[in-house]
Amino acid sequence: MRRYTVLVALAVVFVAPLLWALGTSLKSQTEATRVPPTVWPAEPVTDAYGTLFEGTTQTPVLRWFLNSLIAATGHMLLVLAVSSLAAYALARLEFRGKRLMFGVIVGTLLVPGFVFLIPQFLIIDQLGWLDSLTALIVPGAAGAFGVFFLRQFFLGLPRELDEAALMEGANHWHIFLRVTLPLSKPALATLAVLSFMSNWNDFIWPVYVLFSPEYFTLPPGLSILQGAYTIDYPVIMAGAVLASVPVLILFALTQRYVIEGISRSGLKG
User: Fold this and answer.
1) Where are the bilayer-spanning segments (predicted)?
2) What angle do the packed helices 233-264 and 61-92 form, to 10 degrees?
3) Which of 122, 228, 234, 236 could pair covalently with 48 via S-S, beta carbons 3.0-4.6 A apart?
4) How far is it between the farthest Cα atoms of the chain?
């Protein structure tokens, strides 16, 4: 009974901000700033969503939403491709310097992300990717966490499957595509959700590399709504609700795989 009480309390803690944002987005500006505040609007209105979706040339919210969706999806797919290939090599292949290479990769996890801001900015500038969605998709695609996470999962897969496939004439590329990846759906789904959320919620990096309003993503774009609408709390909360929808849908579709992936990863090293 105590366990369920704790779980219910945690659920309330995590759900309450979402319900507050939803309720505030349905309030009028007068009710949103009322003291004491109301938990749910007395007369729900959708004016905030109308204002949000109308947008202007300086605040094209729907364009920001589409940019975020493109950048997060592209980044997620690139992370899955790069991390799975690197993790397979580190988990299943034997080559000189493998342990040293893995140690260096894991060591980068200890370096604060802000250290890479200026070097990455200079590289993006040299490549001509500034003020484009490419600057949000490519950097970080070869992150150490994805490689480490998938390697730990791949190590838990029976090696007898690889040996049987090799005896049947398959090479490592066939084993990777037809044996390892199909058995790794939980880990891949987990990494997909984590990488999508990381890119979707990123604020600092887009501020550094995006300059035109039409290329903004939701996090930096919504931050200027305060200036655009003079701290219109319902509009800001409507933007927060809009930003949370794709993440909630993605997690709802993959939660079974995510739970299984987390429970099975990191058990062997």
Assistant:
1) 64-88, 100-123, 129-150, 231-254
2) 10
3) 234
4) 74
CB 184 within 8 A of CB 151: no
Torsion of CA 39, 43, 49, 54, to 10 degrees: -150
Burial 89-111 (b: 16+ CB within 10 A, else e): bbbbeeeeeeeeebeebeeeeee
Residue range(s) occupied by CATH 1.10.3720.10 in the chain: 57-264
Among 248, 106, 263, 251, CA closest to 189: 251
- Contact between 168 and 233 (Cβ < 8 Å): no
Residues 154/93, Cβ–Cβ less than 8 Å? no
What does each C-alpha distance from 58 to 29, 70, 149 come to in angstroms?
A: 22, 20, 40
Contact 133, 71 (CB under 8 A): yes
Residue with tokens 């979402």: 18
Terminal CA-CA length for the chain: 36
3-state secondary structure (DSSP) of residue 87: helix
Distance CA 16, CA 4 (A): 18
Read off the pLDDT band of 268 (50, 70, 90).
very low
Supply the pTM of this predicted model: 0.85
Domain 57-264 class?
mainly alpha
